[in-house]
Write a structure and sequence with these properties.
The chain is mainly α. The protein folds into six domains: about 80 residues; about 55 residues; about 45 residues, no CATH class; about 55 residues, Arc Repressor Mutant, subunit A (Orthogonal Bundle); about 120 residues, no CATH class; about 45 residues. About 70% of the residues lie in helices and about 0% in strands. It contains 34 helices and two strands. A two-stranded antiparallel sheet has the order 1-2. Strand 1 and strand 2 form a beta hairpin. The protein is elongated and about 135 Å long.
Length: about 550
């Protein structure tokens, strides 16, 4: 059709209502405007249907195809304009290859090939010999074979023509051509991936395919061997009912087992995990076994390998013997002195560090060889000493109250109560002791505590949780708990709960800032008592306020 368009006489006149237009004029108008409607508006002569009939009659194609034909005519005219046979021959003699000539002159390679073959009536190789071009541009057979081998290696490694072409800077079609050329020369065997799957299924057997999977292992290598793509390979696996991943896993596991057997042959016994991690190449085997058997114990169970006994060096044996003798000496000294010997004295006598003595005593306690009251040395732990004093006071006087214990020992009531609670947990004291019920009337019963809190709130609406806690001798968290219970039961209105809500850090910081601005001196203990903020938090808030430059 394009050749027919080239043969059309564009000077032919079209008559309509006494007006004359050539086909070339109409075609140029259509090229400029691109629409029959616009041409009809410009000419004011032809209507759109009339123009459509003219184009169909003279150009023999639909309007959508005329644009392609016009482009073809334009390209042909450009080739003819740039057509200079002498220049083409001179450049072909100089370069020897059409792509280089195409770059130099700007004419497509196909057009150059057609021009030369049409003008001289021979192929390009014969033309090269006739023109006697430079020998450096002729391809040597050695270079050609090397190139074929290079392309084949890239194709086998990457598995597809496209990937091999990207690596070598060639197109997919060119890679295929080079491979076919290598096959034709006899350098290697190559078959296109469009191999018939039905014939391959007839030729192959399940055992052969399994052997190839175990030997080649890689999906790309297997596809390259049979010249098929991955989709056909998976179809082949489905046909023979082969689980490719399972065989891959078994192959990898078999490799790790071979490596482990080699290690056993070298050592003469089954190594421990510590020995396997001692060398980098053995460590890889250890990682592989853990990956496919989850852990080393499963691997040993499957193959019936006994776990090697732990080997103790002479230094470790000597150290264990010394540790046993040291522990027995410490235990004897503690029993002789009834636990009143200081640890520093034990350290000087035995020539052992204090930390080692602390560790040994902790071990005795864990094993049940010593109790907390067998050791009463102040330099080890003051908590044990306080607990022992409280315990001894309670044993002497069963009716003693927490307030009396607090005054005698110089401790807070809350601290004494905490130690008593620990003694009860350890079983040293019973729940039914008189001092507990007497001194902790409000602490002991939740209902009594709730009633006491409710009475105080009714007496004074503005009372704070800190004030209630100080009056009842309990922690303010117990007050919060009592208020929450009272609100749930409906005995206290929800609005009363607001003054006892836990304050946010910003609210605490603001109350502290206001208190500091009112007071002249900065007494931390006084601030803590009046605001109800812990001492540690006060120090932290003061640092923050100084950073913010508010104080």
């Amino acid at each position: 059709m394009r050749n027919k368009l080239l043969r059309i006489n564009l000077r032919k006149v079209v008559r309509y209502q006494g007006n004359k237009y050539t086909l070339g004029d109409l075609l140029s108008l259509w090229k400029e405007q691109g629409s029959l409607v616009k041409i009809a508006e410009i000419t004011h002569i032809f209507s759109q249907p009339k123009l459509y009939k003219i184009f169909r009659k003279h150009f023999g194609n639909r309007i959508s195809g005329i644009k392609k034909q016009v482009r073809f005519i334009k390209r042909k005219s450009q080739v003819k304009a740039a057509y200079n046979l002498k220049k083409i021959v001179r450049l072909f003699k100089k370069y020897g290859f059409l792509p280089d000539v195409s770059k130099a002159i700007g004419i497509p390679t196909i057009s150059l090939r057609n021009i030369l073959t049409k003008e001289f009536g021979m192929g390009l190789n014969e033309l090269r010999r006739k023109l006697k071009g430079r020998k450096a541009y002729f391809r040597n057979s050695d270079k050609s074979s090397f190139r074929c081998q290079q392309v084949k290696a890239a194709y086998e490694r990457l598995g597809t023509l496209e990937k091999a072409g990207k690596e070598l800077g060639l197109t997919k079609q060119r890679v295929s051509q080079i491979l076919l050329k290598g096959k034709r020369i006899g350098l290697f065997s190559y078959e296109r991936k469009g191999r018939n799957l039905k014939t391959l299924k007839r030729e192959l057997t399940r055992e052969v395919l399994i052997n190839d999977i175990e030997s080649l292992f890689s999906e790309i290598k297997i596809c390259a061997k049979y010249s098929i793509n991955k989709k056909k390979f998976r179809s082949l696996l489905r046909h023979f009912s082969i689980d490719f991943k399972e065989y891959q896993r078994a192959t990898r596991a078999g490799r790790h087992m071979k490596c482990y057997s080699k290690i056993v042959d070298d050592l003469g016994y089954h190594p421990s995990t510590t020995e396997l991690n001692s060398r980098s190449d053995w460590r890889k085997v250890w990682h592989g076994i853990r990956r496919y058997w989850e852990n080393f114990e499963n691997f040993r169970k499957e193959f019936g390998i006994e776990k090697p006994k732990r080997k103790m060096s002479e230094k470790l044996l000597e150290r264990n013997i010394k540790a046993k003798s040291r522990r027995s000496q410490i235990l004897d000294l503690l029993k002789e002195s009834s636990g009143h010997i200081p640890y520093k004295e034990i350290s000087l006598k035995l020539g052992v560090s204090l930390n080692q003595i602390y560790n040994d005593i902790a071990r005795f306690r864990k094993e049940g060889m010593l109790t907390d009251f067998d050791i009463r040395t102040r330099d080890y732990n003051e908590i044990d000493e306080k607990k022992f004093k409280i315990f001894s006071l309670i044993k002497e006087n069963n009716a003693i109250s927490i307030e009396e214990i607090s005054k005698q020992l110089g401790l807070g009531c809350g601290v004494v109560y905490g130690y008593i609670r620990n003694l009860r947990k350890e079983g040293k004291l019973s729940d039914a002791t008189t001092y507990y019920k007497k001194s902790l009337r409000i602490r002991g019963s939740g209902e009594e505590r709730k009633l006491a809190v409710l009475n105080l709130i009714k007496e004074n609406d503005t009372i704070t949780a800190v004030e209630i806690a100080a009056k009842l001798g309990v922690h303010r968290s117990r007050v919060y708990e009592a208020v929450n219970y009272l609100c749930r039961e409906g005995r206290l209105i929800e609005s009363y709960k607001a003054p006892w809500k836990r304050r946010t850090p910003d609210e605490r910081k603001n109350t502290l800032l206001n208190f500091i601005r009112k007071s002249d001196t900065l007494d931390i203990q006084r601030i803590s008592k009046e605001t109800g903020i812990p001492v540690v938090s006060i120090y932290r808030y003061i640092r923050q306020l100084r950073k913010e430059r508010k104080i």
